[in-house]
Amino acid sequence: MVTDGHITEKDCPMLYTLSVAGGKWKWVILFIISEHKVIRYGELKGKLPSIAHKTLSQQLKELESCDIIHREQYNQVPPKVEYSLTARGKTLIPILRLMSQWGKENRDLGEI
């Protein structure tokens, strides 16, 4: 629906996709999870050293709430949590691969 001349997520599939997986970290998080199939929080954090714990936790919660990743918690000491892609999350892999390929082909062409 267009409200006050503005396009909403219901009107634009691109806006919807970005609302689910947009932001600085979500695509990178998804790419790392896809490369490992199942990954523990500490391993994921280790691959993203510049991300704050709070930011990583928030991004993971948002991806889980959209059924993009699955969080498996094991009740043991110390606590163990693993992340994997859901069936819905796996549908984003072709997009991730295209984004990666575009980056390889274009990263040296200009400043960001």
Automatic annotation (TrEMBL):
Pfam families: HxlR. PROSITE patterns: HTH_HXLR. InterPro entries: HTH_HxlR, WH-like_DNA-bd_sf, WH_DNA-bd_sf. Keywords: DNA-binding, Transcription, Transcription regulation. Residues 12-111 form the HTH hxlR-type domain. Gene3D superfamilies: Winged helix-like DNA-binding domain superfamily/Winged helix DNA-binding domain (1.10.10.10). It comes from the Bacteria. The keyword DNA repair does not apply. This is Helix-turn-helix transcriptional regulator. It comes from Caproiciproducens faecalis.
